[in-house]
Amino acid sequence: MNKIAVFPGSFSPFTLGHKSIVDRALPLFDKIIIAIGINSEKKEYFSVEERKQWIQKVYKSNSKLEVQFYEGLTVDFCEKVGANYILRGLRDSHDFKYEKNIAHTNTDLNDEVETIFFITPTEISHLSSSIIRDIIKNGGDVSQFLPKEIDL
Ligand code: ADP
Q1: What does the pLDDT look like over 65-84, one tens digit per residue?
Q2: Does ligand 1 come within 6 angstroms of the Cβ of 18?
Q3: Which of 8, 75, 105, 137 could covalently link to 110 via disulfide, CB atoms 3.0 to 4.6 Å apart?
């Protein structure tokens, strides 16, 4: 049986923190689908298309990695693509509290989908897409926080 994992998120933009999770998860699964959530009610700073293209640029030579868009419940998307695992990252206790409730709720909704957490290396545990967007809005250089293939 193919082991398929979904890594859901906004990825606005995809940072070294996200990359660290994907890189560590890749040897464990047959396929990883990075699933960019579409929230039609939220005005996003980067379009979903550009977010997808950046991730594809980082993993262009990896056939185990796919990028897709999704709307609605993450567990429903998992069922649609045949995934039994959700990947999420934990930076600190704040992430843990938030993620624990979501993971339990997802299990209530579909107990065939397991959430797997990756603890962030300390050197990048302070990184967040929202802080990176703030730096960009204020004209700063964010290259040290992003995979080298993403040039913002
Ligand atoms: P969401 O809006 O769903 O939180 P994000 O794109 O912000 O989407 O994050 C997706 C996942 O990546 C989350 O599990 C988040 O905890 C994790 N993540 C974000 N930044 C980092 C980081 N610096 N290190 C590890 N994990 C991270």
Answers
A1: 999 999 999 999 999 999 99
A2: yes
A3: 75
